[in-house]
Amino acid sequence: MVQVYLVFTTNYFPWLTIIVVLPISAGSLIVFLPHRGNKLIKWYTLCICIFELLLTTYAFCYHFRLDDPLIQLAEDYKWINFFDFYWRLGIDGLSIGPILLTGFITTLGTLAAWPVTRDSRLFHFLMLAMYSGQIGSFSSRDLLLFFIMWEFELIPVYILLSMWGGKKRLYSATKFILYTAGGSIFLLIGVLGIGLYGSNEPTLNFETLANQSYPVALEIIFYIGFLIAFAVKSPIIPLHTWLPDTHGEAHYSTCMLLAGILLKMGAYGLVRINMELLPHAHSIFSPWLIIVGTMQIIYAASTSLGQRNLKKRIAYSSVSHMGFIIIGIGSITDTGLNGAILQIISHGFIGAALFFLAGTSYDRMRLVYLDEMGGMAISIPKIFTMFSILSMASLALPGMSGFVAELIVFFGIITSQKYFLMPKILITLVMAVGMILTPIYSLSMSRQMFYGYKLFNAPSSYFFDSGPRELFVSISIFLPVIGIGIYPDFVLSLSGEKVETILYNYFYR
């Protein structure tokens, strides 16, 4: 009994393997539940998600040290003897935030999917399979395992989109899989190239590869390959066009997982692989990343204003906000990179919340085009209140997480020693213009939806307002948004030590 207790209370217990494998293993048992027991399936899936989130939180609270930048809870098992493939997992300050975000958003996404009744067993299994794939991506310490997890979570998204989407769901699903699978080809080539380069014993271990150097030309080739793969997923213009179509057609619970987690995997990959493994090439490409990020903020914000479809407007706002993450990564400063990581977490909450509220509005109105809406504030005041508050969070209202994240990215680019004064001033001015465009499309969206008289004058102008379940999901997402806005150190303390290690080990040595 004492030995069992010691295993559970030390780092030798395979916490990460259990956290990665549990959702899909439990999800595979859904097939044994009664076919018509939709409510039982929903409660079972929700309980699995809550248990997984509590288990993750417990493991990280008791076994993760914030002051240690090295890999913690590391696991390393030989998986396939034939070509030395290892099951390597581990977390550090860079991965702990996205993993906790994944658990939180997936749990609320499962609760948001309560109205789904068609093929309920398959739907909830796919949600749990995505959960495993995403956590596996964030905790992988082996490049080939990272690629497998990266690919694995695309399959559930494709099926969720093609079966539970809107009228153009097959077109959107096909476009999604073509873009993401096309990007994955570059990722696979980069993984194999780095693993096989310059060694009689090929290695795919992150720790070994982080200390390996390459000829500059070869490092640039590797960097471009990884950049294309992560640019599709982030997305970075001009590889972003799959995103509005996907969000426009997907069920809003799927949209929550896409906006809250899937897009953040691309940004995570940029830091984890492009910055950490290929620092010299990143120094060369960082000015271009900042230029592209600045263009993305302006372009996506301007395009968002012209969208008639509500979910497409929110999707373009996501593309715009991802521009701040790209700029933070390109700044090569402690402040900028911390701001980018904070924006990853912040936008994960805000994007998921806006898509959830857009979906609940559609459930009532059955309208997707903004010019057909109006007067909804009178019929659904609770949804109106939550939508207005979270729209303010999206436009970076002080006191909300978006404001702090974008402000830190601003400071990061201003204080960067890599760039001259005039380019920094120009980039800052253009970013400021982007921040001005954000309230224009955000407030315009709220005005078209909730103000005026269209629905109020309609014969069937009465709709049920937000119920306890929907209100719980909205408030659960709002609380961390306001919490991070008031006390951002809650997130920054997780990543601070790791960010310093990345920058000083690879850029300032």
Automatic annotation (TrEMBL):
<comment type="similarity">
    <text>Belongs to the complex I subunit 4 family.</text>
</comment>
<keyword id="KW-0618">Plastoquinone</keyword>
<keyword id="KW-0793">Thylakoid</keyword>
<keyword id="KW-0521">NADP</keyword>
<feature type="transmembrane region" description="Helical">
    <location>
        <begin position="121"/>
        <end position="138"/>
    </location>
</feature>
<feature type="transmembrane region" description="Helical">
    <location>
        <begin position="255"/>
        <end position="273"/>
    </location>
</feature>
<dbReference type="GO" id="GO:0003954">
    <property type="term" value="F:NADH dehydrogenase activity"/>
</dbReference>
<dbReference type="Pfam" id="PF00361">
    <property type="entry name" value="Proton_antipo_M"/>
</dbReference>
<feature type="transmembrane region" description="Helical">
    <location>
        <begin position="339"/>
        <end position="362"/>
    </location>
</feature>
<feature type="transmembrane region" description="Helical">
    <location>
        <begin position="44"/>
        <end position="65"/>
    </location>
</feature>
<feature type="transmembrane region" description="Helical">
    <location>
        <begin position="85"/>
        <end position="114"/>
    </location>
</feature>
<dbReference type="InterPro" id="IPR010227">
    <property type="entry name" value="NADH_Q_OxRdtase_chainM/4"/>
</dbReference>
<feature type="transmembrane region" description="Helical">
    <location>
        <begin position="383"/>
        <end position="413"/>
    </location>
</feature>
<keyword id="KW-1133">Transmembrane helix</keyword>
<keyword id="KW-1278">Translocase</keyword>
<feature type="transmembrane region" description="Helical">
    <location>
        <begin position="285"/>
        <end position="302"/>
    </location>
</feature>
<protein>
    <recommendedName>
        <fullName>NAD(P)H-quinone oxidoreductase chain 4, chloroplastic</fullName>
        <ecNumber>7.1.1.-</ecNumber>
    </recommendedName>
</protein>
<dbReference type="GO" id="GO:0016655">
    <property type="term" value="F:oxidoreductase activity, acting on NAD(P)H, quinone or similar compound as acceptor"/>
</dbReference>
<feature type="transmembrane region" description="Helical">
    <location>
        <begin position="425"/>
        <end position="444"/>
    </location>
</feature>
<dbReference type="GO" id="GO:0008137">
    <property type="term" value="F:NADH dehydrogenase (ubiquinone) activity"/>
</dbReference>
<keyword id="KW-0472">Membrane</keyword>
<keyword id="KW-0150">Chloroplast</keyword>
<dbReference type="GO" id="GO:0009535">
    <property type="term" value="C:chloroplast thylakoid membrane"/>
</dbReference>
<feature type="transmembrane region" description="Helical">
    <location>
        <begin position="314"/>
        <end position="333"/>
    </location>
</feature>
<keyword id="KW-0520">NAD</keyword>
<dbReference type="GO" id="GO:0048039">
    <property type="term" value="F:ubiquinone binding"/>
</dbReference>
<dbReference type="InterPro" id="IPR001750">
    <property type="entry name" value="ND/Mrp_TM"/>
</dbReference>
<dbReference type="InterPro" id="IPR022997">
    <property type="entry name" value="NADH_Q_OxRdtase_chain4"/>
</dbReference>
<feature type="transmembrane region" description="Helical">
    <location>
        <begin position="220"/>
        <end position="243"/>
    </location>
</feature>
<dbReference type="InterPro" id="IPR003918">
    <property type="entry name" value="NADH_UbQ_OxRdtase"/>
</dbReference>
<keyword id="KW-0934">Plastid</keyword>
<feature type="transmembrane region" description="Helical">
    <location>
        <begin position="12"/>
        <end position="32"/>
    </location>
</feature>
<dbReference type="GO" id="GO:0042773">
    <property type="term" value="P:ATP synthesis coupled electron transport"/>
</dbReference>
<keyword id="KW-0812">Transmembrane</keyword>
<feature type="transmembrane region" description="Helical">
    <location>
        <begin position="176"/>
        <end position="200"/>
    </location>
</feature>
<feature type="domain" description="NADH:quinone oxidoreductase/Mrp antiporter transmembrane">
    <location>
        <begin position="140"/>
        <end position="426"/>
    </location>
</feature>
<dbReference type="GO" id="GO:0015990">
    <property type="term" value="P:electron transport coupled proton transport"/>
</dbReference>
<feature type="transmembrane region" description="Helical">
    <location>
        <begin position="144"/>
        <end position="164"/>
    </location>
</feature>
<keyword id="KW-0874">Quinone</keyword>
<feature type="transmembrane region" description="Helical">
    <location>
        <begin position="471"/>
        <end position="488"/>
    </location>
</feature>
